[in-house]
Specification:
Length: 605
């Protein structure tokens, strides 16, 4: 009898405690927009028409140094939803659908467990997740749909609500989206960055983009009006941010500021004004990365972020020491690989290119649906670009360093300037430190057997220290490193063999003394290593030796291996030397592989 009476009493007490706690906790609203940098009035853009965000900024704080750790959506969202660098989980590649380590959750689960009502309207695109992804979604969200809203919560519950706005997505610049729309922005008024040639197509794209941003801003206004009409403005912390840089060429996907520096505005009501980083309407230059967002929201909700989270809270009573650096990354975007790691301090941007033989601007079948990309490529092919505008279509330097204060468009590489040797060394060392600290999966190439989280944690399967040294040698490959690459190609470890071969790919004809080692790698246990060895042999002029391997692997059952083989055909122009490759090339499967096939076959039509 006593126990039977005690249970309702305990339940009543818990309910009262949760209610009291809810009254002391803020609602938290995330409004995200897709594919836009700081093309907003409140960030100083004179062409932008963004009155709703401008008003929000007047009552909140503009973070001028907020960066998406990834420059493309799925890896960026993976970092946001997990509170971990996607690179540490293996998710640096677009749509790689990696499995999280046990115990790592979509972070709204922690809020929901603590009594928050959580809604997502409605994009996920998390690039993978816990082993049981369906259960993980149910644990994270009370509702995730295009109807999800804080208005469906039970009385007395604080909420965490996410709204995603797609009106500024790069697809909105595709011509079929503009058949029945008249431009409002005058193309003559827009200002093109220094890396873009002044072409009518690019001006028209940018004008269309400003129109899209106006539509996006109107949607933000609708959400904020709903908040106000519900009487919740004084009890809700509002975040507005974009998921990565803008839709214009060399924006989204690229690790320059144009692809990673995003607008962030945070409004904190008077009730919690002690958490305000600045007075209303003022900017903050604190360095913030997407990896910090989960920890920040949990801190504002009065929760302790779990130990696995790698971010730092930048708001709240327990906000962390400000960062000195933000770390950015690039892997595969769609069908094209470009392995880049970035270090951003307040003034400088440092990039380490681990595939320097590839140009920044490779053809991507999706983003080249925007007219300006094609116009820029045509101008380059016709010799109508300045050196600053042409260099993005050519092989890269091993390292890039930009003074963002004096060169906001990131066009003057200072990596070889003696005046910046110390700055370069500091940022290079920070890149190496970070890779080791989070056990970045960068050197476990996509397509190698056993690529998963557990493997990254083992020095037996993933000897990170030696791989980092080897990959740095590959990045700045010189002939005196050839013996290092040959030795690596003979390693029992597949990652080391892969990067040994890549050293020869980067050296090109200067790797002639490694011919025998490369021919041996054509019989490697790993198909991916076979492919890259074939590519290196093509670079030595040994096309006849390479073609049989490429032909065979175009038919491989694994789509990533097929894609990699197709990339060799395209990037090495193998159809000219071996036109019979067209037949197996046409059989390549997967959406990404087919894009490469279409582009490679264009000259044969």
């Amino acid at each position: 009898m006593t126990k039977a009476l005690a249970l309702p009493l305990v339940t009543l007490c818990l309910a009262w405690a949760c209610s009291a706690l809810a009254d002391d906790r803020p609602n938290i609203l995330w409004i995200t927009s897709e594919d836009n940098g700081q093309y907003l009035g409140c960030f100083g853009d004179p062409v932008a028409r963004t009155p709703n965000l401008d008003r929000l900024a007047k009552s909140g704080t503009r973070f001028t140094h907020c960066f998406s750790n990834a420059a493309v959506c799925a890896p960026a969202r993976q970092t946001l939803i997990s509170g971990m660098y996607a690179t540490s989980i293996g998710g640096q590649h677009m749509r790689s659908t990696v499995t999280y380590p046990d115990g790592v959750h979509y972070f709204p689960k922690h809020l929901r467990d603590a009594g928050y009502y959580t809604t997502n309207n409605s994009k996920t695109d998390y690039n993978g997740g816990p082993r049981d992804s369906r259960a993980a979604m149910k644990a994270a969200w009370d509702e995730s749909s295009n109807k999800a809203h804080w208005r469906t919560r039970p009385d007395g519950k604080p909420f965490f609500a996410v709204f995603n706005i797609g009106d500024s997505h790069e697809s909105r610049l595709f011509p079929n989206r503009w058949k029945n729309r008249k431009l409002k922005t005058d193309p003559a008024r827009v200002k093109l960055p220094a890396y873009l040639p002044d072409l009518p197509e690019l001006r028209r794209d940018l004008a269309r983009y400003y129109d899209c941003l106006e539509t996006m801003d109107a949607r933000v206004g609708q959400i904020l009006t709903q908040l106000k009409n519900d009487g919740l403005t004084d009890n809700t912390i509002v975040f507005y941010f974009a998921d990565h840089g803008g839709s214009m060429p060399r924006g989204k996907s690229f690790t320059y500021d144009s692809g990673t520096n995003v607008p962030l505005v945070v409004y904190i009501p008077d009730k919690w004004k002690r958490w305000r980083p600045t007075d209303p309407g003022k900017p903050s230059d604190r360095l913030v990365g997407f990896v910090d967002f989960a920890a920040t929201v949990m801190t504002l909700a009065g929760l302790e972020p779990p130990n696995y989270m790698q971010g730092r809270a930048f708001l709240g009573d327990k906000s962390a020491t400000p960062r000195d650096y933000v770390h950015t990354f690039r892997g595969r975007r769609g069908e094209r690989y470009d392995i880049v790691r970035g270090v951003r301090s307040k003034r400088f941007l440092y990039l380490r290119n681990y595939t320097p033989h590839l140009p920044v601007l490779q053809h991507n079948g999706y983003m080249f649906g925007i007219p300006g990309y094609n116009a820029w490529l045509t101008a380059y092919q016709n010799g109508k670009c300045s050196p600053q505008q042409a260099r993005w279509f050519e092989p890269k330097s091993a390292e890039e360093l930009y003074d963002t204060r004096n060169d906001p468009d990131n066009v003057r590489n200072l990596a070889n300037d003696p005046a910046f040797v110390d700055v370069l060394a500091q940022h290079r060392a920070e890149n190496d430190r970070h890779i080791m600290a989070i056990r970045d999966s960068v050197f476990y190439a996509e397509g190698l057997t056993g690529r998963k989280f557990d493997a990254y944690q083992s020095d037996k399967t993933y000897p990170l220290k030696s791989l980092l040294a080897l990959a740095n040698d590959v990045s700045a490959a010189t002939p005196d490193k050839l013996d290092t690459f040959k030795q690596a190609m003979r390693s029992k470890n597949a990652c080391e063999r892969y990067w040994g071969v890549m050293g020869c790919v980067v050296l090109g004809k200067r790797a002639a003394d490694a011919r025998a080692d490369l021919q041996a790698r054509l019989k490697d246990d790993e198909p991916l290593i076979q492919i890259q060895a074939a590519r290196a042999l093509v670079g030595l002029g040994d096309t006849d030796a390479a073609v049989p391997t490429v032909r065979r692997l175009l038919k491989h059952r694994n789509e990533i291996i097929q894609l990699r083989a197709a990339l060799v055909v395209d990037e090495c122009h193998l159809l000219t030397a071996a036109p019979d490759l067209a037949s197996p090339l046409k059989q390549v499967g997967g959406a990404y592989g087919k894009r490469v096939v279409d582009w490679a076959l264009r000259a044969t039509r």
